[in-house]
Protein backbone atom coordinates (compact mmCIF):
# COMPACT_ATOMS: atom_id res chain seq x y z
CA UNK A 1 0.00 0.00 0.00
CA UNK A 2 2.72 2.45 0.91
CA UNK A 3 4.64 1.33 -2.11
CA UNK A 4 1.65 1.89 -4.37
CA UNK A 5 1.06 5.35 -2.89
CA UNK A 6 4.70 6.23 -3.50
CA UNK A 7 4.46 5.18 -7.14
CA UNK A 8 1.31 7.19 -7.70
CA UNK A 9 3.13 10.35 -6.56
CA UNK A 10 5.83 10.09 -9.18
CA UNK A 11 3.84 11.46 -12.13
CA UNK A 12 2.87 14.49 -10.03
CA UNK A 13 6.50 15.19 -9.15
CA UNK A 14 7.41 14.75 -12.81
CA UNK A 15 4.84 17.35 -13.81
CA UNK A 16 6.12 19.85 -11.27
CA UNK A 17 9.69 19.58 -12.55
CA UNK A 18 8.75 19.77 -16.22
CA UNK A 19 7.07 23.14 -15.64
CA UNK A 20 10.60 24.53 -16.06
CA UNK A 21 11.27 22.75 -19.33
CA UNK A 22 10.95 24.82 -22.49
CA UNK A 23 7.36 24.17 -23.60
CA UNK A 24 6.37 22.65 -26.95
CA UNK A 25 4.60 25.01 -29.33
CA UNK A 26 2.58 23.73 -32.23
CA UNK A 27 4.18 24.55 -35.58
CA UNK A 28 7.61 25.08 -34.01
CA UNK A 29 10.60 22.93 -33.21
CA UNK A 30 12.85 23.63 -30.27
CA UNK A 31 16.31 24.49 -31.61
CA UNK A 32 18.23 25.46 -28.45
CA UNK A 33 17.49 25.76 -24.74
CA UNK A 34 19.11 25.95 -21.35
CA UNK A 35 16.91 24.75 -18.49
CA UNK A 36 19.52 25.47 -15.80
CA UNK A 37 19.73 21.98 -14.37
CA UNK A 38 22.22 21.28 -11.61
CA UNK A 39 22.58 21.45 -7.86
CA UNK A 40 21.99 24.70 -6.00
CA UNK A 41 24.80 27.20 -5.70
CA UNK A 42 26.64 26.39 -8.95
CA UNK A 43 27.54 28.71 -11.79
CA UNK A 44 25.44 28.07 -14.90
CA UNK A 45 26.93 25.83 -17.61
CA UNK A 46 29.92 27.73 -18.95
CA UNK A 47 29.76 25.78 -22.21
CA UNK A 48 26.58 27.79 -22.82
CA UNK A 49 27.31 31.10 -21.08
CA UNK A 50 30.02 33.70 -20.68
CA UNK A 51 29.72 34.92 -17.08
CA UNK A 52 30.83 38.52 -16.95
CA UNK A 53 33.32 39.68 -14.34
CA UNK A 54 33.97 43.39 -14.07
CA UNK A 55 32.40 46.75 -14.61
CA UNK A 56 31.24 47.50 -18.15
CA UNK A 57 31.13 51.26 -17.61
CA UNK A 58 27.82 51.72 -19.47
CA UNK A 59 24.70 53.82 -18.75
CA UNK A 60 26.28 55.12 -15.52
CA UNK A 61 25.28 51.84 -13.83
CA UNK A 62 26.61 51.13 -10.33
CA UNK A 63 27.07 47.37 -10.26
CA UNK A 64 30.23 45.35 -10.76
CA UNK A 65 29.38 42.02 -12.38
CA UNK A 66 30.95 39.04 -10.67
CA UNK A 67 31.69 35.55 -11.95
CA UNK A 68 30.45 34.23 -8.63
CA UNK A 69 27.67 31.84 -7.70
CA UNK A 70 26.60 34.46 -5.19
CA UNK A 71 25.49 36.60 -8.15
CA UNK A 72 24.60 33.95 -10.76
CA UNK A 73 23.63 30.51 -9.58
CA UNK A 74 21.59 27.48 -10.46
CA UNK A 75 18.93 27.17 -7.76
CA UNK A 76 18.83 23.38 -7.63
CA UNK A 77 15.23 23.57 -8.88
CA UNK A 78 16.08 23.96 -12.60
CA UNK A 79 16.22 27.74 -12.56
CA UNK A 80 18.93 30.41 -12.79
CA UNK A 81 19.02 33.15 -10.17
CA UNK A 82 20.67 36.48 -11.05
CA UNK A 83 21.13 38.29 -7.75
CA UNK A 84 22.22 41.88 -7.01
CA UNK A 85 23.85 42.43 -3.61
CA UNK A 86 24.64 45.62 -1.78
CA UNK A 87 28.13 45.09 -0.41
CA UNK A 88 28.94 48.05 1.81
CA UNK A 89 28.40 51.13 -0.29
CA UNK A 90 28.82 49.35 -3.63
CA UNK A 91 26.78 46.82 -5.58
CA UNK A 92 27.64 43.53 -7.26
CA UNK A 93 25.37 41.65 -9.63
CA UNK A 94 25.26 39.03 -12.37
CA UNK A 95 25.25 39.04 -16.14
CA UNK A 96 25.50 36.05 -18.49
CA UNK A 97 25.76 36.14 -22.28
CA UNK A 98 25.14 33.06 -24.42
CA UNK A 99 27.96 31.59 -26.47
CA UNK A 100 25.16 30.29 -28.67
CA UNK A 101 24.04 32.55 -31.50
CA UNK A 102 21.15 32.13 -33.92
CA UNK A 103 19.95 33.88 -37.05
CA UNK A 104 16.22 34.08 -37.81
CA UNK A 105 15.86 32.26 -41.13
CA UNK A 106 14.12 33.56 -44.27
CA UNK A 107 10.81 31.83 -44.95
CA UNK A 108 10.38 30.92 -41.27
CA UNK A 109 9.14 32.18 -37.95
CA UNK A 110 11.69 32.22 -35.14
CA UNK A 111 10.87 32.56 -31.44
CA UNK A 112 13.07 33.45 -28.47
CA UNK A 113 11.53 32.94 -25.05
CA UNK A 114 12.34 32.80 -21.34
CA UNK A 115 10.25 32.11 -18.27
CA UNK A 116 11.02 34.75 -15.68
CA UNK A 117 9.94 35.87 -12.23
CA UNK A 118 11.21 38.54 -9.90
CA UNK A 119 12.30 38.22 -6.28
CA UNK A 120 9.55 38.72 -3.74
CA UNK A 121 10.85 41.90 -2.07
CA UNK A 122 8.29 44.65 -1.75
CA UNK A 123 8.25 46.79 -4.88
CA UNK A 124 9.01 49.86 -2.73
CA UNK A 125 12.47 48.41 -2.01
CA UNK A 126 13.46 48.07 -5.68
CA UNK A 127 14.37 51.63 -6.68
CA UNK A 128 17.36 51.31 -9.04
CA UNK A 129 16.98 47.56 -9.72
CA UNK A 130 16.93 46.86 -13.48
CA UNK A 131 16.45 43.22 -14.63
CA UNK A 132 16.66 42.39 -18.32
CA UNK A 133 16.28 39.53 -20.83
CA UNK A 134 17.60 40.67 -24.21
CA UNK A 135 19.59 40.02 -27.36
CA UNK A 136 22.53 41.74 -29.02
CA UNK A 137 23.83 41.33 -32.54
CA UNK A 138 26.91 39.11 -32.47
CA UNK A 139 28.78 41.64 -34.63
CA UNK A 140 29.38 43.71 -31.46
CA UNK A 141 31.85 40.95 -30.49
CA UNK A 142 33.92 41.79 -33.56
CA UNK A 143 33.87 45.56 -33.30
CA UNK A 144 30.57 46.76 -34.77
CA UNK A 145 29.49 49.64 -32.54
CA UNK A 146 26.24 49.84 -30.62
CA UNK A 147 23.51 50.31 -31.76
CA UNK A 148 24.50 49.38 -35.34
CA UNK A 149 24.98 45.79 -34.09
CA UNK A 150 21.24 45.63 -33.26
CA UNK A 151 19.63 45.11 -29.85
CA UNK A 152 16.29 43.48 -29.03
CA UNK A 153 15.06 43.85 -25.45
CA UNK A 154 12.49 41.14 -24.84
CA UNK A 155 11.81 42.22 -21.26
CA UNK A 156 13.15 44.98 -19.06
CA UNK A 157 11.69 46.35 -15.85
CA UNK A 158 12.93 49.15 -13.61
CA UNK A 159 12.40 50.09 -9.99
CA UNK A 160 10.13 47.13 -9.28
CA UNK A 161 7.35 48.65 -11.36
CA UNK A 162 4.95 46.09 -12.81
CA UNK A 163 5.54 47.39 -16.33
CA UNK A 164 7.38 45.28 -18.89
CA UNK A 165 9.27 47.06 -21.66
CA UNK A 166 10.06 45.51 -25.06
CA UNK A 167 12.34 47.63 -27.25
CA UNK A 168 14.65 47.63 -30.26
CA UNK A 169 17.80 49.70 -30.56
CA UNK A 170 19.38 50.04 -33.98
CA UNK A 171 21.10 52.22 -36.57
CA UNK A 172 23.03 55.25 -35.40
CA UNK A 173 23.41 57.03 -32.06
CA UNK A 174 21.90 59.50 -31.39
CA UNK A 175 18.71 59.68 -33.42
CA UNK A 176 18.37 57.47 -36.45
CA UNK A 177 15.44 55.24 -37.34
CA UNK A 178 15.35 53.78 -33.81
CA UNK A 179 15.26 57.26 -32.21
CA UNK A 180 18.27 56.59 -29.98
CA UNK A 181 18.82 56.52 -27.12
CA UNK A 182 15.12 55.80 -26.55
CA UNK A 183 14.72 53.06 -29.15
CA UNK A 184 11.36 51.84 -30.40
CA UNK A 185 9.44 50.19 -27.63
CA UNK A 186 6.15 49.01 -26.25
CA UNK A 187 4.98 48.28 -22.72
CA UNK A 188 2.73 45.81 -20.97
CA UNK A 189 1.36 45.72 -17.47
CA UNK A 190 2.66 42.71 -15.53
CA UNK A 191 0.07 41.05 -13.27
CA UNK A 192 2.54 40.28 -10.44
CA UNK A 193 6.21 39.47 -9.79
CA UNK A 194 5.58 35.78 -10.45
CA UNK A 195 6.38 33.58 -13.48
CA UNK A 196 5.52 34.86 -16.95
CA UNK A 197 6.78 33.78 -20.37
CA UNK A 198 8.48 36.59 -22.30
CA UNK A 199 8.87 36.08 -26.06
CA UNK A 200 9.66 37.71 -29.36
CA UNK A 201 8.77 36.24 -32.74
CA UNK A 202 10.47 37.16 -36.00
CA UNK A 203 8.16 36.50 -38.96
CA UNK A 204 10.24 36.23 -42.13
CA UNK A 205 7.62 34.27 -44.12
CA UNK A 206 6.43 37.15 -46.31
CA UNK A 207 9.38 37.10 -48.74
CA UNK A 208 9.81 40.90 -48.54
CA UNK A 209 11.78 42.54 -45.72
CA UNK A 210 9.35 45.50 -45.65
CA UNK A 211 6.49 43.29 -44.45
CA UNK A 212 8.55 41.18 -42.05
CA UNK A 213 7.66 41.71 -38.39
CA UNK A 214 9.10 41.36 -34.90
CA UNK A 215 6.40 40.85 -32.24
CA UNK A 216 6.62 40.84 -28.42
CA UNK A 217 4.47 38.72 -26.12
CA UNK A 218 3.97 38.30 -22.39
CA UNK A 219 2.66 34.77 -22.06
CA UNK A 220 0.57 34.65 -25.24
CA UNK A 221 -0.55 38.31 -25.31
CA UNK A 222 1.02 40.58 -27.89
CA UNK A 223 2.25 43.93 -26.58
CA UNK A 224 4.52 45.38 -29.25
CA UNK A 225 5.32 44.94 -32.93
CA UNK A 226 7.65 46.52 -35.47
CA UNK A 227 7.56 46.03 -39.25
CA UNK A 228 10.36 46.40 -41.75
CA UNK A 229 8.68 49.30 -43.54
CA UNK A 230 8.45 51.27 -40.26
CA UNK A 231 12.24 51.06 -39.97
CA UNK A 232 12.49 51.64 -43.73
CA UNK A 233 16.20 50.87 -43.94
CA UNK A 234 17.09 47.39 -45.13
CA UNK A 235 20.59 47.34 -43.63
CA UNK A 236 19.29 48.36 -40.22
CA UNK A 237 16.37 45.91 -40.40
CA UNK A 238 18.79 43.15 -41.32
CA UNK A 239 20.85 43.85 -38.17
CA UNK A 240 17.75 42.96 -36.11
CA UNK A 241 16.31 40.10 -38.18
CA UNK A 242 18.89 38.35 -40.32
CA UNK A 243 22.23 38.41 -38.48
CA UNK A 244 23.47 36.22 -35.61
CA UNK A 245 22.13 37.21 -32.18
CA UNK A 246 23.05 36.14 -28.65
CA UNK A 247 21.09 36.09 -25.38
CA UNK A 248 21.81 38.21 -22.28
CA UNK A 249 20.35 37.83 -18.79
CA UNK A 250 21.35 40.44 -16.21
CA UNK A 251 20.26 42.62 -13.33
CA UNK A 252 21.75 46.10 -13.49
CA UNK A 253 21.68 48.52 -10.55
CA UNK A 254 21.23 52.25 -11.05
CA UNK A 255 22.03 54.20 -14.17
CA UNK A 256 20.50 56.73 -16.50
CA UNK A 257 17.20 54.97 -16.96
CA UNK A 258 16.10 53.77 -13.50
CA UNK A 259 18.01 56.35 -11.49
CA UNK A 260 19.85 55.29 -8.35
CA UNK A 261 18.97 53.10 -5.37
CA UNK A 262 17.61 54.96 -2.38
CA UNK A 263 17.80 54.25 1.37
CA UNK A 264 15.03 51.67 1.11
CA UNK A 265 16.58 49.67 -1.76
CA UNK A 266 17.43 46.10 -0.82
CA UNK A 267 19.62 43.57 -2.61
CA UNK A 268 19.63 39.81 -2.22
CA UNK A 269 17.32 37.05 -3.41
CA UNK A 270 14.27 39.24 -2.94
CA UNK A 271 15.68 41.57 -5.62
CA UNK A 272 16.73 38.86 -8.08
CA UNK A 273 15.60 37.88 -11.56
CA UNK A 274 14.95 34.12 -11.73
CA UNK A 275 14.86 32.31 -15.06
CA UNK A 276 13.17 28.94 -15.62
CA UNK A 277 14.54 28.39 -19.14
CA UNK A 278 15.79 30.24 -22.17
CA UNK A 279 14.79 28.77 -25.52
CA UNK A 280 14.90 29.40 -29.24
CA UNK A 281 12.47 27.83 -31.69
CA UNK A 282 11.96 27.79 -35.45
CA UNK A 283 8.91 26.98 -37.57
C1 LIG B 1 1.89 32.96 -17.62
O1 LIG B 1 2.32 31.65 -17.90
C2 LIG B 1 2.87 30.96 -16.77
C3 LIG B 1 3.26 29.59 -17.22
O2 LIG B 1 4.21 29.62 -18.19
C4 LIG B 1 1.86 30.88 -15.65
O3 LIG B 1 2.47 30.29 -14.52
C5 LIG B 1 1.35 32.27 -15.31
O4 LIG B 1 0.33 32.21 -14.35
C6 LIG B 1 0.82 32.97 -16.55
N1 LIG B 1 0.45 34.31 -16.21
C7 LIG B 1 -0.79 34.74 -16.29
C8 LIG B 1 -1.02 36.15 -15.89
O5 LIG B 1 -1.71 34.04 -16.69
TrEMBL record:
One of its GO terms (biological process) is carbohydrate metabolic process. It comes from the Eukaryota. Coiled coil: none annotated. GO terms for molecular function: hydrolase activity, hydrolyzing O-glycosyl compounds. Keywords: Hydrolase, Signal. CDD domains: GH16_Strep_laminarinase_like (cd02182). Residues 18-283 form the GH16 domain. Pfam families: GH16_XgeA. Residues 1-19 form the signal peptide. This is Glycoside hydrolase family 16 protein.
Amino acid sequence: MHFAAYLSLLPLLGTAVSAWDAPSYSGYRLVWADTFAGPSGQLPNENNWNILDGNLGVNNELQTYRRSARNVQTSGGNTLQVVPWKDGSSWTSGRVESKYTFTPQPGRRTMAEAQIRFGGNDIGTKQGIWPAFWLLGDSIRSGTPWPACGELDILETVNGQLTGYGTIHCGVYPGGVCNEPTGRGGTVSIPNQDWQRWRIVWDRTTGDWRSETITWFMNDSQFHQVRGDQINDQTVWTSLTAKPLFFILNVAVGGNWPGYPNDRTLGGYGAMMEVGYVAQYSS
